[in-house]
């Protein structure tokens, strides 16, 4: 009887231990669940912030843009004072948005027009620096669009060049319509910098009007995904997992496109137009390595020029004479 009582007491103790262990496991699972939910909410909130930070429209006045332009390129001021009154505001309605551009006809009538596409969170006015080269030295008409959600154009978000590729094609139609129908056939070159370079590369992968004869991209990225991944690491010290994946999913839900989809690397592989690739040799914002990937993907005809020592979007400012010579020789060959 004593042994039996001892066994009962041991059994009761084991049951109590098992119950305590079960309660402990249950509490641990509940806490783990709450922690997982909290982490998920933090990641979603951070991703919403990143999506807004990356793609929110830019509001900048024309006076501020001109001031920034002169600060970056003071030698441009005499040309601007001479030509600013000749700049024509041009607007169109496209995909439910009002889009704006500046147009400056050449001093001597010509069938050649350069469509100059600005970079990320910039505007058409910023391209007047390169525009002066086309207008003064090369004798081109110049058309400078404000991309969607930039400058004076409408739009609820920035499309990293992917959505804007359709705008570029529409501006080609506008450029050709500005040239008399009974004259020589218009010839158009697309020239973009940074995100503008991504836009013209993306456009070049789709069918374009016959008037487009050549494309020049300056410091464009391989894809929006790769560029955002690079910026996350360089600017915030963060890995692409999980933030970039969640932000990408939010972009797909909110705006209907994805960062992988916005891929100039894929688009240039489908382009048979002559393309000139320009990149700064010391670019870390859009790493110089990206231009070599783009160049390798592009079928002939193509040409590559690396601006020695230049950082992002500084090739023209650092090497104006060389830049002009490279562009002139390229266009003389293909335009």
CA radius of gyration: 28 Å
Give the second-level CATH assignment, the architecture of the largest domain: 3-Layer(aba) Sandwich
CATH domain topology of the largest domain: Rossmann fold
Helix content range: 40-55%
User: What share of the residues does DSSP label as strand, in percent?
Assistant: 15-25%
Spans with pLDDT under 50 lasting ≥5 residues? none
Q: Which overall shape is indicated by the principal axes computed on the Cα atoms? A: elongated
CATH superfamily of the largest domain: Alpha/Beta hydrolase fold, catalytic domain
Give the total of domains. Answer: 2
Widest sheet, order of strands: 1-2-4-3-5-6-7-8
Which CATH top level class of the largest domain fits?
Alpha Beta
Describe the structure.
- This protein has helices at 2-55, 62-72, 77-83, 128-137, 164-177, 195-204, 224-236, 243-255, 264-268, 289-297, 315-318, 320-334; strands at 88-94, 97-104, 112-117, 141-146, 187-193, 212-218, 275-280, 302-307.
- The protein has 335 residues and is of the alpha/beta class.
- The protein folds into two domains: 1-55 and 225-258, no CATH class; 61-223 and 262-334, Rossmann fold, CATH 3.40.50.1820.
Structure characteristics:
335 residues; alpha/beta; Rossmann fold; 2 domains; eight-stranded mixed sheet; 12 helices; 8 strands; 16% strand
């Amino acid at each position: 009887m004593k042994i039996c009582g001892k066994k009962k007491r041991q059994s009761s103790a084991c049951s109590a231990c098992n119950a305590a262990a079960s309660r402990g496991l249950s509490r641990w699972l509940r806490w783990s669940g709450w922690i997982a939910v909290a982490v998920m909410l933090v990641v979603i909130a951070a991703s919403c912030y990143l999506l807004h930070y990356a793609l929110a429209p830019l509001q900048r006045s024309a006076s501020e843009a001109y001031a920034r332009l002169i600060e970056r390129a003071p030698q441009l001021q005499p040309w601007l004072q001479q030509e600013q009154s000749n700049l024509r505001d041009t607007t169109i309605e496209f995909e439910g948005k009002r889009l704006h551009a500046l147009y400056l006809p050449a001093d001597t009538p010509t069938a050649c027009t350069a469509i100059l596409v600005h970079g990320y969170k910039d505007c058409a006015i910023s391209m007047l620096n390169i525009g002066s080269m086309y207008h003064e030295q090369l004798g081109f008409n110049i058309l400078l669009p404000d991309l969607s959600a930039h400058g004076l154009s409408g739009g609820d978000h920035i499309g990293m060049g992917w959505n804007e590729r359709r705008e570029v094609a529409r501006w080609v139609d506008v450029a050709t319509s500005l040239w008399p129908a009974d004259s020589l056939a218009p010839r158009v070159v697309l020239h973009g910098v940074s995100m503008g370079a991504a836009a013209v590369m993306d456009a070049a992968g789709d069918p374009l009007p016959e008037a487009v004869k050549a494309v020049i991209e300056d410091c464009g990225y391989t894809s929006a995904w790769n560029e955002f991944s690079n910026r996350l690491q360089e600017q915030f010290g963060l890995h692409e997992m999980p933030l970039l994946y969640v932000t990408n999913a939010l972009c797909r839900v909110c705006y209907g496109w994805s960062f992988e989809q916005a891929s100039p690397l894929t688009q240039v592989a489908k382009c048979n137009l002559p393309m000139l690739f320009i990149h700064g040799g010391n670019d870390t914002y859009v790493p110089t390595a990206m231009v070599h990937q783009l160049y390798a993907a592009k079928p002939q005809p193509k040409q590559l020029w690396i601006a020695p020592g230049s950082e992002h979007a500084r090739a023209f400012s650092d090497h104006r004479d060389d830049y002009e010579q490279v562009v002139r020789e390229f266009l003389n060959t293909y335009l």
